[in-house]
């Protein structure tokens, strides 16, 4: 029999809420997390705005921040979100089989200390030539070894594996902005194929860093509305001019349905669909028809054994760049046909900014909230419709919609695409009977 | 037609290897790689002089002629894309193209049914990409002002720099060059990534999400930050060693930095048989585990023995039926003891008869690429029927009770385990066997 995968814990650290309750309240009131960039002095940068996580440290989940002082921001976010999810799911209290418990995250590249890096290059310059041995000598003096050890994308997964005693597979993937979406989809596949029973999955990232701003600015991907940060991210709006760099994490405990029922866990939703697809077009931009994007959504529908008319809400990738929003709209129409015009589609990046590799996980948390509350978050700043973006983008205000199946869609550099579907879990009679038995 | 990634119908699918490709310090084709492994030196010079490791894949210049024989259109596309690829990506793409050519898969195929899964290093920032920017922020008397970066440094960085250094680029370039539209992912789990990529690709095929997957890994410990991080993790020499890698030898003191990529084509066995493909071997199973304490303390040996035990069960292998073991063989004092004890614990008495190889003695530490290079070396051994020596092994260490191969005479057998470990408490392994219908 097909093994079903359900969500039993959620955690998040985001620019508009450092718990799932805070996130929910911000989303439905349309609170924007974009503001002046404060994590480094960006006063001479072309882009001076970002969606930063505020008022966060690991003491909020009972960890001693001193233990994690050498870690990059994303590790702190991942541990925060991961421990929140594990607590909600009651992982430590339940005697789960550690060997059947793994971690799969989509955490991005942590960036090196910018001043130390550029200074090392400068100090190693000889006759205008870069000399690698000399760079190494300078770098070894300027970089802190304890910090460097933590600057690898797999460290959050490794730390969470240790903290939660997960002895199954522990891994991290990077597939640009679909990393955490694929980490969750692949983690579910591992449960479905009976390799494990429980996975902690999700992602974390922060590119609010001189390297991040440099890279995205050179790709002309960023909004330069420095004077009006809260209006900067305008997904699907005619006046959109790019995305705003964000940061954060979301994590989930997902497990095999019977396993969750046996231990009497609260079931927050069922992970029913996953699709991954490649545009196979260009590294630099998406296929003009959104070929891979549409295919990923179709594969997610097929794997969930659902039809377009079954979907009640789509959380779009919706970065707010000219091209992404147009192509994603085309792809939704291609995947959903006439239903595309009926289904509400919103981009919560309008409030959260773009958390790059972590965005898929955070947006899945948004979807699970909609399943539970029957409310769809809005696309804020959507004021002047773009004729080429002609779907229902839930402008400005949250909307009540009873949701049974919702999809989140992500698109990444390199032609990467992935989509997930979560569904309301309602076999209440059976579920309560099982939990009574377990008790 | 849409397929069902989560369907359970495909769980019985058998998965075989139908193509291989390699870029390494010991050759940049499977043929030269094998020749180099099996003819490392004449026996007399082997005895007289220990082998130090070449510092990289010197034969691979990254120019278009170093890619394999290619259809004109793909050759042109690679030529155009080269400036967007860092060296790890170039090696991964070259190995991937070899594997595709070798498999004959692209003669007649459905692009939606072939995916890519890679293991890769965190693509750290390369100093040379920021050189012009740093120079622009320096004044005539040579002082550098980082505060000028925002205005004067940023415009000097290549517009596509960020795309060049993303770790998912090998998998993306291969998909784009060859129109592979199936699932596409990149696992960034350092030394244990390659076997994990094999496992993930097998899951996609078993789920009927793809009929074939191009799977590989590429890595380096030669570039500045990779080298620094590898040194901090005790993965490579600290610079004071003699750059001779001696896995399981009593005098071992680590391994030097290196680089390389290996790629295989994995395919549903029925599809491979239908098109008459050459089959190198069958993936019999995969496993990965972790042993990390609450305080971060790692127990790699325990992780490895647990992964191996799971793998033997999943693959239906008995210790005495095992052909050989391809060890991680890091060549450090601690890691080799942990690995040898894990092998000994799982194999029991059979440890005396199952030969162990470690291609790291030839290649040094190619980072995330290592697991894939090991796999390809052992697949070639299965095909040729015999193994290749662990170089520089002459003084057994009683703490490492395994049987390293010292000549080309040892029989490869019909199956092998490919082992990888990472010092943070992780292990991954893959079992491969000769394919029998």
Structure description:
The complex is a heterodimer of chains A (439) and B (437). Chain A has 439 residues and is an alpha/beta fold. The radius of gyration of chain A is 21 Å and the shape is globular. Chain A has helices at residues 20-29, 73-89, 114-124, 132-142, 145-150, 155-163, 179-192, 210-218, 257-262, 291-303, 322-336, 349-352, 359-373, 428-438; strands at 5-13, 34-36, 49-51, 101-105, 125-126, 129-130, 170-172, 198-206, 247-256, 269-278, 313-315, 345-346, 375-376, 399-400, 405-412, 416-423. In chain A, strands 7-4-8-9-1-10-16-15-11-12 form a ten-stranded mixed beta sheet, with helices on both faces. A two-stranded antiparallel sheet of chain A has the order 2-3. A two-stranded antiparallel sheet of chain A has the order 5-6. The model of chain B is unreliable at 1-10 and 42-48 (pLDDT under 50). The longest helix of chain B is centred in the first third of the chain and has 17 residues, at 87-103. Helix content of chain B is 34%, strand content 17%. At the A-B interface, helix 3, helix 4, helix 5, helix 6 and strand 7 of A face strand 2, helix 5, helix 6, helix 7 and helix 8 of B.
Quick description:
By secondary structure, chain A is an alpha/beta fold.
Q: What are the main properties of this structure?
A:
heterodimer; A: 439 residues; alpha/beta; ten-stranded mixed sheet; two-stranded antiparallel ribbon; 14 helices; B: alpha/beta; eleven-stranded mixed sheet; 15 helices; 11 strands
């Amino acid at each position: 029999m097909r093994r079903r995968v359900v969500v039993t814990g959620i955690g998040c650290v985001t620019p508009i809420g450092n718990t799932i309750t805070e996130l929910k309240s911000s989303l439905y009131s349309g609170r924007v997390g974009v503001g002046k960039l404060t994590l480094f002095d960006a006063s001479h940068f072309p882009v001076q705005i970002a969606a930063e996580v505020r008022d966060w440290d690991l003491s909020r989940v009972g960890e001693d921040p001193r233990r994690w002082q050498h870690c990059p921001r994303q590790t702190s976010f991942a541990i925060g979100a991961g421990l929140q999810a594990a607590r909600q799911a009651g992982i430590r209290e339940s005697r789960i089989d550690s060997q059947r418990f793994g971690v799969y995250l989509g955490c991005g590249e942590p960036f090196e200390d910018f001043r130390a890096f550029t200074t090392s290059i400068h100090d190693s310059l000889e006759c205008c030539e870069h000399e690698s041995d000399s760079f190494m000598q300078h770098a070894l003096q300027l970089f802190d070894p304890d910090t460097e050890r933590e600057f690898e994308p797999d460290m959050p997964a490794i730390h969470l594996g240790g903290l939660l005693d997960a002895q199954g597979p522990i891994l991290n993937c990077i597939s640009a902005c679909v990393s955490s979406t694929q980490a969750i989809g692949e983690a579910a596949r591992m449960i479905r194929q009976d390799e494990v029973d429980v996975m902690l999955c999700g992602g974390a990232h922060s590119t609010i860093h001189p390297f991040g701003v440099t890279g995205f600015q050179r790709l002309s991907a960023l909004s330069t509305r420095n004077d009006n940060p809260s209006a900067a991210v305008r997904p699907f709006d005619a006046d959109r001019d790019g995305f705003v760099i964000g940061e954060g994490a979301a994590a989930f405990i997902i497990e095999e349905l019977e396993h969750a029922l046996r231990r009497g866990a609260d079931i927050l939703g069922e992970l029913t669909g996953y699709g991954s697809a490649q545009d196979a077009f260009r590294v630099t931009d998406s296929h003009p028809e959104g070929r891979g994007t549409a295919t990923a959504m179709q594969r997610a529908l097929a794997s969930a054994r659902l039809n377009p008319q079954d979907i009640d809400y789509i959380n779009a990738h919706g970065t707010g760049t000219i091209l992404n929003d147009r192509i994603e709209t085309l792809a939704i129409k291609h995947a959903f046909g006439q239903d595309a015009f009926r289904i509400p589609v919103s981009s919560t990046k309008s409030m959260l900014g773009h958390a790059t590799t972590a965005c898929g996980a955070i947006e899945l948390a948004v979807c699970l909230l909609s399943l539970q509350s029957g409310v769809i978050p809005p696309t804020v700043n959507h004021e002047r419709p773009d004729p080429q973006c002609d779907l229902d983008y839930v402008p400005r205000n949250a909307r009540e919609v009873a949701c049974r199946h919702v999809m989140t869609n992500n698109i990444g550099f390199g032609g990467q695409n992935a989509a997930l579907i979560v569904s309301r879990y309602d076999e209440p009679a059976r579920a309560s009977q099982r939990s009574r038995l377990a008790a | 037609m849409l397929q069902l990634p989560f369907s359970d119908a495909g769980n019985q699918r058998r998965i075989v290897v139908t193509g291989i490709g390699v870029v390494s310090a010991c050759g940049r084709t499977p043929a030269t790689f094998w020749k180099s492994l099996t003819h490392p030196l004449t026996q007399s010079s082997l005895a007289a002089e220990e082998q130090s490791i070449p510092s990289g894949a010197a034969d691979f210049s990254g120019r278009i002629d170093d890619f394999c024989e290619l259809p004109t259109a793909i050759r042109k596309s690679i030529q155009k894309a080269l400036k967007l690829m860092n060296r790890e990506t170039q090696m991964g793409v070259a190995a991937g193209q070899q594997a595709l050519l070798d498999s004959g898969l692209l003669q007649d195929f459905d692009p939606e049914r072939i995916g890519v899964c890679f293991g890769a290093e965190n693509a750290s920032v390369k100093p040379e990409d920021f050189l012009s920017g740093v120079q622009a922020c320096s004044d005539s008397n040579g002082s550098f002002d980082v505060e000028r970066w925002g205005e004067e440094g940023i415009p000097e960085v290549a517009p596509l720099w960020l795309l060049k250094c993303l770790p998912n680029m090998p998998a993306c370039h291969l998909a784009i060059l060859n129109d592979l539209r199936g699932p596409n992912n990149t696992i960034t789990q350092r030394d244990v990534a390659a076997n994990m990529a094999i496992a993930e690709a097998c899951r996609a095929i078993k789920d009927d999400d793809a009929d074939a997957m191009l799977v590989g890994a590429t890595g380096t410990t030669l570039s500045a930050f990779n080298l620094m991080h590898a040194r901090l993790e005790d993965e490579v020499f600290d610079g004071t060693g003699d750059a001779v890698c001696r896995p399981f030898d009593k005098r071992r003191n680590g391994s030097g930095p290196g680089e390389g990529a290996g790629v295989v084509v994995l395919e549903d066995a029925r599809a491979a048989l239908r098109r008459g493909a050459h089959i190198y071997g069958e993936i019999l199973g995969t496993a990965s585990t972790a042993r990390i304490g609450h305080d971060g303390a790692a127990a790699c040996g325990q992780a490895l023995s647990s992964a191996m035990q799971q793998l033997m069960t999943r693959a239906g292998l008995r210790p005495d039926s095992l052909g050989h073991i391809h060890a991680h063989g890091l060549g450090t004092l601690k890691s080799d003891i942990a690995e040898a004890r894990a092998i000994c614990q799982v194999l029991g008495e059979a440890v005396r008869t199952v030969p162990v190889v470690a291609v790291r003695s030839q290649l040094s530490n190619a980072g995330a690429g290592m697991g894939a290079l090991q796999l390809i070396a052992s697949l070639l051994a299965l095909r040729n029927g015999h193994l290749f020596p662990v170089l520089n092994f002459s003084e057994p260490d009683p703490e490492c009770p395994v049987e390293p191969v010292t000549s080309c005479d040892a029989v490869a057998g019909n199956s092998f385990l490919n082992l990888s470990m990472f010092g943070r408490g992780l292990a991954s392994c893959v079992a491969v066997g000769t394919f029998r219908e």
